[in-house]
């Protein structure tokens, strides 16, 4: 952080200011969507200059990625991530996202940007995120197989990619047609392939 | 078409020119991606001025939508759309798309744009497309239920949304990690829920 290097407390203040900007950006994205929240409106709302904002986030891509990362950090649950099985995990995550349509939009924007050459930072974030979530869900599938709930001949990696894809795609369809699509009901069809533990509501391992 | 109104053959010539622009745009998107193909490069490649291009496509959104519509028209199969069952339909479509990653990218861009207020034309196209494809697949599921292949207690609309979501989401994951995701294998897991007709390869109804 260049701002105030050497002054006592300046580093901590920089961290706090960065966090204020992120909090405000998330609020703006949630309320007005990604297109409706310019870098300038994020700066204005936190009382920093546009130049100061660029000090904390060197590009719009970086702000979008860090805002989504912060959103996920806030909502990561301390409970056993495998609680309830792989489908229940994605259903909980989809439920959380649908409370704030602007953040489903942010996620869809990050994903589309990641496919374009001009957004290397976004691409790296989205690739790493998919890899991590696929690995976590594949572990949950493998656990279900060891416990005899899930067919042993089903490939955990294939199933993990399928569940994530279904959750992502259903949220997009729902945003475009809230009356025509029921994310949770469609996702629950996957429970027939990948049954959860009985204690799905309990959250215990 | 304003160009040459009143001149004989001008209308037909206008239609041909529009088609040339679309063909070239699809080639550019397929080769360089959506970000890599500016309106200017589309104009340059077809030997029309930027102003003339705007005569045929009043906005970048309109060009993207019409290019994708044309891509789908080219690849719509004359066979019975329900051939092979709902999952097989989406798997064929995903196979076609993966030959041209630029067009998967175009589709992802259209979908992300559709979620933003600033792209009303794209939104209308994507909403209508999802509605139509969901209705077609729901019909295929209902047919499978009448034929006794698919469980009768499964809601056709929920299943249709699920299959489309899975196909869309898997294509995105595959573009970002071609070695880590196998679209067809993951989609085929859905065959366990929604079995195809035996004559899956034959294409007949």
From TrEMBL, chains A, B:
It comes from the Bacteria. Residues 38-57 bind DNA. InterPro entries: BetI_C, Homeodomain-like_sf, HTH-type_TetR-like_transc_reg, HTH_TetR, Tet_transcr_reg_TetR-rel_C_sf. Residues 70-91 are annotated as: Disordered. Keywords: DNA-binding, Repressor, Transcription, Transcription regulation. Residues 15-75 form the HTH tetR-type domain. This is TetR/AcrR family transcriptional regulator.
């Amino acid at each position: 952080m260049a701002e105030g290097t050497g002054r006592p407390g300046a580093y901590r203040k920089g961290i706090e200011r960065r966090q204020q900007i992120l909090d405000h950006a998330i609020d703006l994205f949630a309320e007005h969507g990604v297109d409706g929240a310019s870098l300038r409106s994020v700066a204005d709302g936190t009382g920093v200059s546009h130049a100061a904002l660029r000090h904390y986030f060197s590009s719009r891509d970086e702000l979008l990625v860090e805002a989504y990362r912060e959103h996920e950090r806030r909502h990561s649950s301390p409970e056993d991530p495998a609680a309830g099985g792989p489908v229940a995990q994605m259903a909980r995550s989809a439920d959380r996202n649908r409370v704030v349509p602007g953040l489903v939009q942010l996620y869809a924007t990050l994903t589309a940007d990641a496919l374009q050459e001009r957004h290397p930072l976004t691409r790296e974030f989205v690739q790493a995120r998919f890899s991590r979530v696929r690995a976590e869900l594949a572990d949950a599938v493998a656990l279900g197989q060891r416990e005899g709930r899930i067919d042993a001949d089903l490939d955990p990696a294939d199933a993990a990619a399928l569940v994530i894809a279904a959750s992502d795609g259903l949220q997009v369809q729902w945003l475009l047609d809230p009356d025509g699509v029921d994310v949770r009901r469609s996702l629950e069809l996957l429970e027939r392939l990948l049954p959860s533990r009985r204690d799905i509501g309990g959250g215990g391992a």
